[in-house]
Each structure stands twice: as structure tokens, then as C-alpha cells.
Automatic annotation (TrEMBL):
It comes from the Bacteria. Residues 36-55 bind DNA. The lineage of its organism: Bacteria, Bacillati, Actinomycetota, Actinomycetes, Propionibacteriales. Keywords: DNA-binding, Transcription, Transcription regulation. Residues 13-73 form the HTH tetR-type domain. This is TetR/AcrR family transcriptional regulator. The keyword rRNA-binding does not apply. GO terms for molecular function: DNA binding. Gene3D superfamilies: Tetracycline Repressor, domain 2 (1.10.357.10). The keyword Zinc does not apply.
Length: 90
């Protein structure tokens, strides 16, 4: 099956979730200082402007904060034994 590409200028439906999932794994593997915005984009498979579209004022820092918040929420839910409602997997 051939995947159809979207036209330019329209963000993908789940690009923010892909960025946060990529940030979770990269931050766990490499840490904040050793990770570049390009690494987040390559790992997530989203376009260059998507990170700055979803995190306009803080870029890499804002994405890292969202990823850390997601990891914290997932960990606390796991420790409490409650089901997680978040779809991302880090």
C-alpha cells in the first residue's frame, strides 16, 4: 500500500504526540544536553516546522518539559496501579 503524503503547510494530526514520544526515548537514552532538535525531528518523523509549531516559545526546552511531564504522569499512574489514559509510549 502506498502512503499518501500531505500537502505542505498542514500539520499532521498526531505530530505533537510523535514528538513527545521521540523526546521521551531520546532523553532517556542521551540526556538533554546531548540531544538536538534535529534528533527529535528525525526520530519522530515529523517535519522541521512541527516542533516550533507545537512549542513556539521554547522549542527544545518546551518539548523536553512536555516529555518529562508525560514520563512523570505515566510513572505515577503505574505505581498507583491505575490505568493510564495517555496513548504515548515512551
Amino acid at each position: 500500500m502506498v502512503e499518501r503524503r500531505r500537502g505542505p503547510g498542514r500539520p499532521a494530526y498526531d505530530s505533537k504526540q510523535k514528538l513527545v514520544a521521540a523526546a521521551c526515548s531520546l532523553l532517556a537514552e542521551r540526556g538533554f544536553e546531548a540531544t538536538s532538535p534535529q534528533m527529535f525531528q528525525q526520530r519522530s518523523g515529523v517535519g522541521h516546522g512541527s516542533m516550533y509549531h507545537h512549542f513556539p516559545s521554547r522549542g527544545k526546552e518546551g518539548l523536553a518539559l512536555d516529555a518529562i511531564s508525560h514520563m512523570r504522569t505515566s510513572t505515577l499512574a503505574f505505581l498507583d496501579g491505575s490505568p493510564t489514559t495517555v496513548k504515548l509510549r515512551c
